[in-house]
Amino acid sequence: MPAAIVTGASQGIGRAISLRLADDGFDVAVNDIAARHSELQSLKAEIESKGRSSVAVVGDVSIEEDVNQLVEVTVEALGHLAVMVANAGIILTKRVMDLTIDEWDRVQAVNVKGVLLCYRAAGRQMIAQGNGGKIIGACSISGYRPQPTAIAYSVSKWAVRGLTQATAIEFAPHGINMWDQIDDNFSNVHGVPKGHAFEQAVQSRSAMKKPQTPEDIAGCVSFLASKDSGMITGQSIIIDGGIQFS
């Protein structure tokens, strides 16, 4: 069966995506940092309870060797790599004048460099396999509308959009489709707890008048990972419940 990789998989959106892809028939490699090892093992067991194969791979997406090893372990354990979901991300709710350079560098390392490394490693493997694939990055509504109260995060997500669109052009001749999905639920990013003011403020502008769930994002990723998305690439898919911006 085809294999999928999901980074930042231990909680929130990453966890929901992993379970949905398992329901869709994928064997799933789940990844997160060492501090999330127990949650990864629990997720692996849940995927296996659905009758799918899984492997849990601890690693930091901002480290090239870890990302390369993630792809290598996945292919060795699960076989053909069909889908990469570069979901891992971190957020700091600081304005430009309050942010330290070390904090800026850390956010960019995970949210931009980490996505780049996932795109490269997955792209290299898919090109070698010779029959295409699907690569999906995690963006945010902050990468579509400026968010000055989380400046490093907002800039990183704007970068993800550009990275995805440019890489999609390069990978298209190899039959690889690429997107980034834009959501509005900050509580699904590591470091922002449920009920945070960011989440409440964004949800209050939703035309649907209901909170977004990780499963809403997973449903979109399910479509993008399927054969039905074959003629869509280089796009930012906005899943925001119809947020109204004034």
UniProtKB/TrEMBL annotation:
Key words of the record: NADP, Oxidoreductase
Organism: Penicillium coprophilum
Superkingdom, natural source: Eukaryota
Coiled-coil annotated spans: none
InterPro entries linked to this entry: NAD(P)-bd_dom_sf, Sc_DH/Rdtase_CS, SDR_fam
Any Pfam family hit: adh_short_C2
GO molecular function: oxidoreductase activity
Stated name of the protein: Diacetyl reductase [(S)-acetoin forming]
Stated family: Belongs to the short-chain dehydrogenases/reductases (SDR) family.
